[in-house]
């Protein structure tokens, strides 16, 4: 087992490598607010309150506003927060990498993510804390659709007959435990109801342009072909607000500045969020997320 300090040195190498990767591809590095008035409404993601505002669960809405202002490529590497999340793989404060690109599709981000992880694995190979085990990010990675995966591993089709509770339960109990552990796997084309901020893919079946990356049993990244229709996005937020209220959860205000940016015009784009601490867990072979951070709350 590598020492804590060796893991922190590897963390520095990885963070520097991420910045270099995106800067070399013409991405604009930005910093957006940590304390915000209106978190994105998602059914099972809760924002910690901070006075009359909230700590962000993601910089997503601000990054998209920058695209609407004319930026072509943006990325942010920084802290995010989740209420009620604490465990071996979860922290209430964690480091997130998000990047967005105009005129790109969700499949384009699959290729870019493959290239990013291949570059980071090469950098990490020179560090004492590097413990790659049997996981290798050599592209291309297998792409499995949610529909075919659930039919094979859970015995039903969530695209044809979506059931939110059954979907979430079977994903955790039946699907994720049977995903490959020795290589990355992309699970793609989610039911529309399970992708609040993703656009619908043209043509049948009606699925959302969303994919998630799994490595070594860890959910590592979540990507969307972004929804750019203001009216549909407002409707989805309002639907989610009603669902949160029915569950007794806090209902956040709508982010009217973001919705106004969609109304003004957001170009076709795709975006992705990646958990950096979980990435470090894979690179160092540790089982606890605490072991890849200098300090934890």
Please characterize this protein's 3D structure:
This protein has one domain: BirA Bifunctional Protein, domain 2 (2-Layer Sandwich). It has eight helices and eleven strands. The two termini are 23 Å apart. Helices cover 35% and strands 21% of the residues. Helix 2 runs parallel beside helix 7 and helix 6 packs antiparallel against helix 7 (256-265). The chain has 297 residues and is α+β, with helices and mostly antiparallel strands. The model has no long low-confidence stretch (mean pLDDT 94). The strands form two sheets. An eight-stranded mixed β-sheet has the order 1-5-6-11-10-9-8-7, sandwiched between helices. Strands 2-4-3 form a three-stranded antiparallel β-sheet, with no helix packed on it.
What attributes does this structure have?
297 residues, alpha+beta, BirA Bifunctional Protein, domain 2, eight-stranded mixed sheet, three-stranded antiparallel sheet, 21% strand
Task: Note the topology.
Blueprint: H1 4-23, E1 28-29, E2 35-36, E3 49-50, E4 53-55, H2 60-68, E5 73-81, E6 93-102, H3 106-124, E7 143-145, H4 146-153, H5 164-175, E8 185-191, E9 207-215, E10 218-225, H6 230-246, H7 256-265, E11 269-275, H8 276-284
Parallel strand pairs: 1-5, 7-8
Antiparallel strand pairs: 2-4, 3-4, 5-6, 6-11, 8-9, 9-10, 10-11
Helix pairs in contact: 1-3, 2-7, 6-7
Summarize the structure.
By secondary structure, the protein is α+β, with helices and mostly antiparallel strands.
Helix fraction, binned, reads: 25-40%
Mean pLDDT: 94
Low-confidence stretches: none
What is the assigned CATH homologous superfamily? Bira Bifunctional Protein, Domain 2
Report on the biggest sheet. 8 strands, mixed
Order of helices and strands: HEEEEHEEHEHHEEEHHEH
Shape: globular
Strand content: 15-25%
């Amino acid at each position: 087992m590598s020492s804590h300090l060796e893991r922190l040195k590897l963390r520095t190498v990885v963070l520097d490598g991420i910045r270099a990767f995106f800067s070399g591809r013409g991405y604009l590095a930005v910093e957006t607010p940590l304390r915000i008035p209106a978190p994105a409404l998602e059914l099972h993601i809760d924002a910690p309150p901070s006075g009359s505002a909230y700590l962000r669960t993601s910089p997503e809405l601000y990054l998209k506003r920058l695209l609407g202002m004319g930026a072509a490529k943006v990325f942010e590497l920084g802290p995010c927060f989740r209420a009620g999340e604490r465990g071996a793989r979860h922290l209430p404060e964690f480091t997130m990498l998000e990047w967005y690109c105009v005129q790109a599709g969700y499949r384009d981000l699959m290729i870019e993510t493959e290239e990013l992880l291949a570059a980071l694995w090469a950098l990490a190979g020179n560090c004492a804390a590097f413990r790659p085990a049997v996981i290798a990010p050599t592209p291309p990675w297998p792409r499995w659709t949610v529909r075919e995966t659930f039919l094979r591993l859970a015995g039903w089709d969530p695209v044809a007959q979506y059931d939110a509770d059954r979907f979430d339960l079977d994903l955790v109990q039946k699907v994720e435990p049977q995903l490959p552990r020795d290589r990355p796997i992309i699970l793609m084309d989610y039911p529309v109801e399970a992708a609040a901020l993703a656009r619908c893919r043209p043509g049948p079946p009606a699925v959302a342009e969303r994919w998630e990356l799994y490595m070594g049993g860890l959910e590592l990244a979540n990507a969307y072909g972004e929804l750019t229709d203001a009216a549909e996005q407002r409707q989805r937020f309002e639907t989610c607000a009603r669902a949160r209220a029915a569950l007794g959860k806090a209902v956040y205000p709508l982010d009217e500045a973001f919705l106004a940016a969609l109304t003004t015009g957001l170009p076709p784009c795709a975006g992705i969020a990646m958990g950096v601490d979980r990435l470090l867990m894979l690179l160092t072979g540790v089982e606890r997320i605490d072991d890849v951070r200098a300090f934890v709350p």
